[in-house]
Amino acid sequence: MVVLKTLFWGSLGALAWTHVGYPVAAGLVARARPRRVAKDSSFEPSVSVIIAAWDEEDQIEARLQNLLALDYPVDKLEIVVASDASTDRTDELVQEVAANDPRVRLIACERGGKVAAQHRAVRETTGDVVAFSDANSTWAPDVLKLLTASLADPEVGYVCGRLELRDATGANKEGLYWRYELWLRQQESLVHSITGGNGAVYAVRREDYVEDDPRYGHDLGFPYLMVQRGKRAVYEPAAIAIESASSEPEDEYDRKVRMIAQSWGHVFSGRMLRRTKPLYAIELISHRLLRYGSGILHIALFASNVALVPRGGLVYRVAFAGQLAALGLVFAGKHRVKVPGAGIAYYYFLVTKATFDGLVRYVRSGTPVVWAKADGTR
Question: Residue 98 and residue 376: Cα distance in Å, rounded?
């Protein structure tokens, strides 16, 4: 009985902390003791924008035209597409654009995955700042100016922008969960440093770039690597990248599982918490480690609750009824039944399930290196 109660209350407390307690605490600390970035809008270093691409013939021309139209000094911008052994017309299309604008260049890489292509591109470019994005993203004209303004602060090594999700009509399709994540990212940036970025829009000082093991992606790895090296990883919400939103919650499920499998590699290698500051360690454990373990925590909570219902008292019966009601909302959300809260419940279920399935994939296959495109964002 003691073990079951410990399992029940421990898993419930961990879930409550990662989803509610920690965001509240981060928000309070950010308000009480904000650590601002010393931005300088006149800071305009040379920038190498790198797009790692694999079979992006449908996207790459428009992406390059978007980057060429950025509001940034022409003589300080180079754009490189690191093609990860594309088998379609990606390379040919990039070369056609490059023939008309010397700022664009193709690097044809052997198949090795996104991070390996990024590493090679960094080695073969010269910009004081290296900025990264995806072939299916679109940047607002002022993105580079906003990113470099934050990098003018010598304490900042990495800056990540805001990814907006929109439908085919251009309407904003950011869900409640995504808005919550972006809000939490902003609080973490004000406290010290963010614990995760996104691949659509970020930049790093060249001297702070880490040519890391290709199994470990930049989105999770670079923020904590910056902090371990005495720098900050910050968030600039005004630097906007736009991508097409998935039409249905299931569309990007496999991508989420792949990303979580990669994230578990950061956890089990021990590298995530190595030589880091105590405050930032709390951020990583609260936002990343417990969040990645939410699938396991929910299973532990449900299983211990089932065992405690016959002999544990009223509180466990009420808790079990609450869990069944939540599963009912998930069922309603899956079948598109119009019940308040059903949509967010189903989305949360998919995200949580992905953390567990990502762990299973990691145990079976290790950290994925070679990517696969997600249909939902194409």
Answer: 29
Residue type at 8 in one-letter notation: F
**Do residues 111 and 84 lie in contact, with contact meaning Cβ atoms separated by under 8 Å?**
yes
For helices 176-191 and 342-365, angle between their N-to-C axes, nearest 10 degrees? 70
pLDDT along the chain (378 residues), means of 10: 94 98 98 96 97 96 98 97 96 97 96 94 97 96 98 98 78 69 96 95 97 89 95 97 78 83 90 89 96 97 96 93 97 92 90 95 81 51
Q: Cα(167)–Cα(344) distance, rounded to whole angstroms?
A: 18
In sequence order, the 6+-apart residues with CB closer than 8 A to the CB of 25 are none
Greatest distance between any 2 Cα atoms in the chain: 76
User: Which of 266, 290, 279 lies closest to 232 in space, CA to CA?
Assistant: 279
What pLDDT is attached to residue 169?
Answer: 56
Q: Quick: pLDDT tens for 74-98.
A: 999 999 999 999 999 999 999 999 9
Q: Show the 3-state SS of 93-133.
A: HHHHHHHHCCCEEEEEECCCCHHHHHHHHHHCCCCCEEEEE
Q: What is the pLDDT of residue 378?
A: 42
Going from the N-terminus, what domains does the chain have, and what CATH number goes with each? 1-32+254-378 (no CATH), 47-245 (3.90.550.10)
Q: Report the C-alpha gap between 220 and 78 in whole angstroms.
A: 26
3-state SS, 344-367, equals HHHHHHHHHHHHHHHHHHHHHHCC
| Structure-derived torsion over alpha carbons of residues 108, 113, 114, 116, reported in degrees to the nearest 10 | -70
Per-residue confidence (pLDDT) for residue 377, from 0 to 100: 46
Strands 156-166 and 232-244: parallel
One-letter amino acid for residue 95 of the chain: Q
Question: Can you say whether the dihedral through the CA atoms of 211, 212, 213, 214 is positive or negative?
Answer: negative
